[in-house]
Amino acid sequence: MTSSVHTQTVFTPQTTLHLCPQPRLLHPLQEQPCPVPQSHSHTSAPYPPRICVIMTSPSAASSTHAVEIVHSPATSTLPREPQQQLVTEFASLSRTLRAGYAAPRGHNGVLQTVASSLRHKHRAFLAQPNNTFFLEFADGGNTQIQVSVGDDAPADVPTYIGVHGMAGNLNAPYLHETLSPLIKENRGRAVVFNLRGCGDSAATSPAFHHGGSTSDLGAVVTWATTKWPNSKIYVIGTSLGGVITAKTLGQWGDECPIAAAALVSPVYGFRASSQAMETNLVSRTVFNPAVGAFYAKLVKKNKDAFDIDHWIHTRPDPFPSATVSPSFPLSSPPSIDPEAPKESRPLAQDSRSKSFATSSTSSASVFSTLPSPSTPGTSVPPTPLPRSSFDLSSPQPAPPLFTEHTPKIKEALSKSLKEVTSRILPQPLTKFCKSFVASTAHYLSGDDFMAETSAVNDLPNIRVPCLAVNCADDPLMPGKDLPRSQARQSPFVIMAVLKQGGHLGTFTTKKWKKLHGKKRYHTAVVEEWFKANEALPQIRPRPQIVNAHQGFVYPQGRPEMAFREVSQMYLKLKFTRPTYPKFKTT
């Protein structure tokens, strides 16, 4: 008999409720087996998880608030996957969640949000030129990647990919603060990258980063899986990066190569967030115009990239064919059309061969041996296959890698771009997203854009362990609007809701720091979460790589994630030049 059980557990300093799954999975969180009555022996047929109540001593800190845990464990009579068992046990046995959270006196949600956005220096690692990489996407966009350790690190060291939030970049202090304890003493490898147009990654295509831009994260994850095939891939998404991470997990589903993920202050629903920013006094007068002004400055700096006519002359050539055989050397330079007029080419086109060749060594080493996808549900790590095993008799037609702009979309983008760049006072963030960002994502309606790029409907499709940490007093995503019902639809998702903490805040008291170190509360929870996931030995199935035109590669079945590794000089020569002469029709 199968029943549906939804749990919403609230941990207090006095009482701890947790589930005892059958069979139990031993991991670092469980030091002693949970007491089970003799009448419920594990020798009988499996039953739905039981509720056990364990009394603990009252906490000395009376100001500690309970943590609301939203989780729905699988109740099937069949043996559950180890990932599901780990998620269920973490929801009940996590020391950090059971301890509760106490905010410093006078630190409400707004103050903690402001404090988290201050420019304080905190880096998990120092950037090194040898550990900096550049990817170019199929539509001409690019990103910069920084890695904490070099190739001399052990091959099986876990890899943590960090995704920053709005108005951030790969140097975001809140992201590095979360990564720092995970990679201490080279126990892990940190990988951070810029979303489109952020940091030193100039916008080079009409695409702007938003919650639905999952292809860039998918490309970085694919790049990491092929560069370190024996390493577990973990992802940490903060704020907007949490939305992108959740949507990526949901879209990939059972085929997701990510071992586990953590979301910190994700803004699940953009409609609810937009309403909160327009109604809350502080959000309406501080956050909304401040972030809007940042993005307006960013667009003005890269306005040529959003000119469709200019983009057509600088983007890579459309893919004529694709094949899973490495027919095209991964280090081959892009072709130059000899029939094109000299003045109509991008000025850096003649220098492509030399500049692209500078990254040939690193590109070839990344994809020299392509890992094979292991069978889902098995614990056997993937083994490298010889390149000849991917040979096909004939190339297959390549699917479209990006959506062409329709006349209506082109007109809407041109209109919104002119409005953003010509205004003296910048637009607030909510209006900027509904008009400009929506048009870059091929939406004519701002409401449709916010509905379809939100991560609310992707939570039930997540099939890998995923922890989300939110605060009820978050001015950008209030607690009443959190998608609790959607989170309960996936047994792989845990949503921890703190009563206080703001957006990316969760600053702790002096007493907490003495007991747990100088960490924010969500940093301690995330660290404990990934340590628990290290108990799972298997590596997720790796995507099969398809080699396409001009050195681009992408996971099979997902051409929108196509990328190629290039050099920084290549990007400078191609895009940091005066614009091409515009021809007027007579």
Automatic annotation (TrEMBL):
- In this chain, the stretch annotated as Disordered covers 322-404
Q: Which SUPFAM superfamilies match?
A: alpha/beta-Hydrolases
Annotated ranges, domain AB hydrolase-1: 163-279
What positions belong to coiled-coil segments? none
Query: What InterPro entries does this protein's entry cite?
Result: AB_hydrolase_1, AB_hydrolase_4_sf, AB_hydrolase_fold
Compositional bias ranges of the Low complexity kind: 354-378
Instruction: Tell me one GO biological process term.
Output: medium-chain fatty acid catabolic process
What would you give as a GO molecular function for this chain, any one?
Answer: monoacylglycerol lipase activity
Q: Which family does it belong to?
A: Belongs to the AB hydrolase superfamily. AB hydrolase 4 family.
- Please give the name of this protein: AB hydrolase-1 domain-containing protein
Taxonomy of the source species = Eukaryota, Fungi, Dikarya, Basidiomycota, Agaricomycotina
